[in-house]
Give the backbone structure.
Amino acid sequence: MTEQTTILASANPSEADSAKEILKTRARILARPAKRDDDGQGEILNVIEFRLAQERYAVEQKYVREVHPLRELTPVPCTPGFVLGMINVRGQILPVIDVKKFFDLPETGITDLHMVIIVHTEEMELGILADAVTGVRLVPQALCQPSLPTLTGIRARYLKGVTDQHMVILDVPSILNDPKTIVNEEVEE
Amino acid sequence: MPAQDQEFIKKLQVTFAMEAQEHVQVISNLLLDLEKSLSPAQEITAIENIYREAHTLKGASRAVDLSSIEKICQAMESVFAAWKRQSASPSRQAFDALHRTLDAIRELLASFTKKSGRPEGPWLAELIHSLDTLQLADTPEISAEAADGAIVKTESAPNIGPASTEPPNFKKEIAREPVFDEAKQSNSAVPETVRISTAKLDSRLLQAEDMLAVKAMATSHVAQLREIASSFEQWGKEWDKLAVDLRVMRRESEAPAATNRSPSRGGVLLHFLDWNVDFVRSLESKLNAAVTKAQQDRIGVGKRVDDLLEDSKKLLMLPFSTIADMFPKIVRDLCSDQGKEADLLIQGSGVAMDKRILEEMKDAMIHILRNCVDHGVEKPNERTRLSKPARAAITIAVRQLNGSKVEIRVSDDGSGVNVENVKKSAVNRGILAASDAQNINDQDAASLIFHSGVSTSPMITEISGRGLGMAIVRAKAEKLGGHVTVESDRNAGTTLRITLPLTLATFRGIVVSAAGQMFVVPTTNIERVLRVKASEIKSVENRETISVNGQAVSLARMEAVLELSPRSAGGDDSMVKPVIVLNSGQQRVAFAVDEVLREEEVLVKPFRKPLARVRNVSGATVLGSGKAVPVLNVADLVKSARKHGLAPTAIVVPKKHMAAPSKKVLVVEDSITSRMLLKGILETANYQVKTAVDGIEAFTALREEKFDLVVSDVEMPRMNGVDLTAKIRADKGLAELPVVLVTALESRQERERGIDVGASAYIIKSSFDQSNLLEVVRRLI
């Protein structure tokens, strides 16, 4: 920087202008964002993987607020079956759902629900129950098959895709924004 | 543009959107003011202000590169400039167009903050054109001033670079400089403020509320310490009993001590006992000091928590105007849709209330205003016929009643509640008996509008008439711990009074249990708590009733109303059941519960989306233990109970010939859901179930109580299921106890290990279903 200033100071006005121009061009070139290597694969999904009844699921990390061990779960009466209950997270009450029940998947065996993954969109927040959270993965979108309902039994609109490793990536916004998710019931008279 | 810059502009635009909304609101309010008849002086000030607001908004939108809004503002500013010069005057048509313009700006703002709303398009040009014609509307002759306006117009229409529009605007700004300075000076007297997003304050408040658990914890610690301290008394008594024996012993041990120099064995023991007594005594006094200290701390913590909570609540107190600012616009839109005229006057909009209460009341207030315009306000010609001013007046007056309550009064000078229609509607809906309809006074009849389905309107309009609006208002007010009343005079108007607490206050609630779960019922809704023998339950027309103060009150079972599976426990006629009598409005219903536990100070946290509204539950509260517990909605419960009452099977009369004392099962499982599931399955099959979270807890439970069977998970912290089984087999008293292992592990090896240590059965989680568990259990006991 000092060197450049000296050049500018010593040069006559027209030279200073052209020097400025050169510097500007240089700055522009340098400011261009670095090229990424993943051009061939397109978008990379940053997901949190979890296990639920021997199956592998994942949600995109950008929708995850936090992951919490499940210590206490209070059932809420008069709610649909997929709402397993509510939890208290630092003073905030959050409903917790079982995605298998939400998708009406057949219940095979019982699960060891130990973890809550708190997911959110702009409008709402809820907890998804999981047996265990197994890690964070980078999944190139290109490796995700559009889901086959026969394969997972889950409607395609709730899914972001299924990887070749049979990891089911859930589409958080479409689950949270689904009218089915919202519990809004009055007592009929 | 580089991505970072774009992102920066995007951020700026979001900030701008917040600022812009405020400007739009101010312009909207000023327009509404101008529409009313103002004195000439007031009108000049209003026009000056509105012009300045539009100008500021224009400048701000240019700064963040939003040329669409800038263009609209430019056109709007030109109209206001024309008003200022008095080359054009505000007209009805102008107001309509300007309100439409403000709506358009709102849509544009929404389109880039939330991706909803309406993005830019050709409609924009049309809008600007309609505004351009406005400033010329009542000046057909080309005066010098009009020509001036035309120049402004040509400046704004095409998107010329900022350089060419700069000079004229620049001059204008210089001309207005003194005005801005004045505004700044008057602002400097205002105390310093900081803008913080409410989301941040929300989380601060939640944290403060969470401190209530700390307070409760401190209380329970003190109780625990006291209990320990009191056990020293027991020790003291036991010690005193030994006094005589000890004296004898001491004498005996001292006598030979004289002949034998070395201390006898008894002497050593006595020496130790003496030391031990002193040790225990000093321990006792230390503990007592600790109890005193803990108690002082509890009081100190309690006070600090209360102060913190109180102050945090105040942080989230917002003036009523935060929701009221939109009301004049709503009333105006409703009126113009129906060809009615009304002014809305808002008094006391500065009264501050808890943000959450305001949010909850916003919809309710809109329902009230709709009702006012739709049912209250008459058409202008009708009003003239009744010799009332053609423009109706709707007043919202907010005032603080005392330290903790606020009253919102909404009154109109319209037609009042049509009592006859209300009665008719109520009779049709079965809310009012036809015979009572004659005797009921007008005041009580008017109050019937708060019942769902009752409407005064013979016709359902798009706006109202379904009879839901007022019911929603009442439900909201009651949920927040307030209430609502109505006064009405035929042809003179209607007044609604809503009383609300200023903050979401803690209230007292009774903790009850039903079907093994805890619930909180607001104490204010509880009329009585009784204990009723099964033999005192009478059956009237297929519905169970009990007698409360000589009156028959129908009885419902809490678990049935809450749709929970009832506990297996049977009962006989002599069994006493706790019953709480709840009232909602004029109705009362008694609910049988498992237990009435205690009264606690609780704070209701309303559910949020996705739990928009849950039947029978109004929200949750966090008990001292940190456990979230549902708070029941008494109005819903009473309704639900009436519904259930119609089905005679809903209430099961306890049978005498219930199964012999049921077998006791201990479920050991660290996962809470599996634990609840196993417990549920076994309980419905009439087993008595206790639970433990790991092997160590289970083994302790087995030592204390006799069980007939253990169902245990394998993988658990501290002591796993296999080790637990081994320990049970090794214990003399427990060796024969059947143990069922439930596991996710499917390997043969694991299974063999389980069988090796002596498990009676093995169930694999992945192939688990309730019938195979029950079958296995039945086979074993």
User: Anything to note?
Assistant: Chain A touches chain B through 48 residues (CB under 8 Å). The longest helix of chain A spans residues 13-31. The first strand of chain A starts at residue 44 and ends at 52. Residues 2-32 of chain A form one domain.
